[in-house]
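The records we work with from here on pair a chain with its fold. Taken together, the tokens spell out the fold as the letters spell out the chain. The record below shows the convention in full.
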Amino acid sequence: MPKTAIRTTKAPQPAGPYSQGIVANGFLYTAGFGPQDPTSGAVADTVGEQTRQVLRNVSAVLAEHGLTLDDCVKSTVHLADLADFAEFNEAYKEFFTEPYPVRTTVGSQLANILVEIDVVAAVPARPGE
């Protein structure tokens, strides 16, 4: 199975031995992204603002392969506190249109952040493929 790594400076750089994204078998899989601004490293205080930055980071990786959040079919969300779900959900829905991707949201111990998200996006077949 061939796979292609996706890399961009418009999202936080990997903190370990992993890719920002991988294209394989007609899908683009992203790493889990936190809310760090890729330029300044700043992290917002609220789960809503952190969610928006995470989705901007994810969007940057998708864009490197000509995709958008509208191509997403699955997302996995980790919240440091499930009590933040309503605020998270309000920010999340600003970035997606129907039909929404399927989603799993879980409570997780996160290192000094409130939210982390990864996605799976379908890569449309290109002419001649």
